[in-house]
Amino acid sequence: MVREQVTYEDGVVYEFTPDLEAIATVEPGTKLTIETQDSLNGTIHTEADVIESIPSQVNAATGPIAVEGAEPGDVLRVEIEEIRLTEEQGRVVTIGGFGLLDGDGGIEAPRTRLLSVEDDALAFGDLDIPVEPVIGTIGVATEADAYTTLVPHDHGGNLDTTDMTAGSVAYFPVFQEGGLLAMGDCKAAMADGEMCGTGAEIATEIDVTLEVVSAPEPGLERPLVETADAWKTIASAETLQEACRLANRDASELLAAEHGWDLTDAYMLSSLVGGLEISQVVDPLVTARNAVPKAYLEEPV
Amino acid sequence: MVREQVTYEDGVVYEFTPDLEAIATVEPGTKLTIETQDSLNGTIHTEADVIESIPSQVNAATGPIAVEGAEPGDVLRVEIEEIRLTEEQGRVVTIGGFGLLDGDGGIEAPRTRLLSVEDDALAFGDLDIPVEPVIGTIGVATEADAYTTLVPHDHGGNLDTTDMTAGSVAYFPVFQEGGLLAMGDCKAAMADGEMCGTGAEIATEIDVTLEVVSAPEPGLERPLVETADAWKTIASAETLQEACRLANRDASELLAAEHGWDLTDAYMLSSLVGGLEISQVVDPLVTARNAVPKAYLEEPV
């Protein structure tokens, strides 16, 4: 099968809305390569290039891509097969007014550090950091409101979740016909939390296969990701506590449905295995996830 | 060397204060076995035994144990060698007014589920959960204020951190002469987050070796734990965001000190490797940690 190619030159969005216009329409089962620009739109080439404040347009998301037959109530299944870096350096930056320690004594913003890529590692001073690419922004057309690509919500968007990596399968609720998937803002490496506001921002090519899961029961209200050994619900909210509550509620509902338990028993199990994880603590809404090992949750969608 | 034994019958505390009185005093290098009661003081024997609301005394912490020569500014090093369960069942409970989903539709509190232990696994319905014991409450005499054993803070206390397990080494700031260590509230298994408010609460025997690190630079303001592959700063605060901020600040300072970097470079590295983790989201203060893989931080204390 020929792998179709969609590049940021075909189109990007800076906002996820209910009425995105597809730049490509594909059949379920299609294998695609999606080219993404770095989150800062190729503006940072040297350490003298700094970002004084958040630009009005960041995290260009290549797309949207419609999948034929995807209807509200369905789930879009995105198998992430490979993420290849397409530049020889990444960049980590601090930006004024942004980041977990913003305003703390001793923290300088803006600052830019370039990280050259060699032999699958990033150079940071004399340390080598293994390349482990992550898709920072990935999502679908929203149900009702508009969210810029700086903001994560139930449609996905700027989830900054390390599990959005090769080998994982991401699932999104379909809110609009075709689903309308877009992605970008990749990192060559990123910590859980993305504390300084960025990972090693870099341009990539992403190989995915897109499928539609028809009206599963229970459905999804928010993104879900399948890793090698766990299912993880993902939720974004004003506070980490609320993001945790939503992710735990979603995980408990999936456990209850699969095992035929009531919600309280599912919640009690959720308190014993796997657990809550942090995606990012820096975006206008913050993101947490609830991992349930596959030993306890086999096939939630 | 004979291993000394300290049991909850020798003494427990329900509050960490600046002026704890030692029930035992040991030399640095002492190997101890510490016996702990379950967090609910042996009151739950059947599923009909439920906890309507948080009792005034929970998480009995066996101790305090003074270590000779430990002075304010030092660090108490607690190597956790083994945690043995001393009963054949654990219990997970929901309690009115407590837990991440407390008050949500479909969540019943109080409820008690007993989990029998067999072949290193806990039975939950027809699921087997591997026994992976965790010390829920572990800490030292405080600097100034008093915290009940339900509350974690800079002295440790009710940290509910899954890394407090066999094979880890926990480090606490010494605020008072002797350090005055106490621990209890063990779980046979617990999820990161401890969402329903408990893990599988159970009585144990804990083998530890206690040492004193004399006035390290930089010192510790809060607990730190060393696992097989990472160093993790641990912080508790009113909100998860603030706990994350403190843990990230502490991790950045340890990185800066070891590498001779400024704080901003350390913060940028912290945003690329390891990352933020959740300990618990249910106690009156919540707890997060910042993991830094040992490849980037070798010997912070």
UniProtKB/TrEMBL annotation, chains A, B:
InterPro entries: FmdA_AmdA
Domain of life: Archaea
Molecular-function GO terms, alphabetical: hydrolase activity, acting on carbon-nitrogen (but not peptide) bonds, in linear amides
Pfam families: FmdA_AmdA
Name the record gives this protein: Putative acetamidase/formamidase
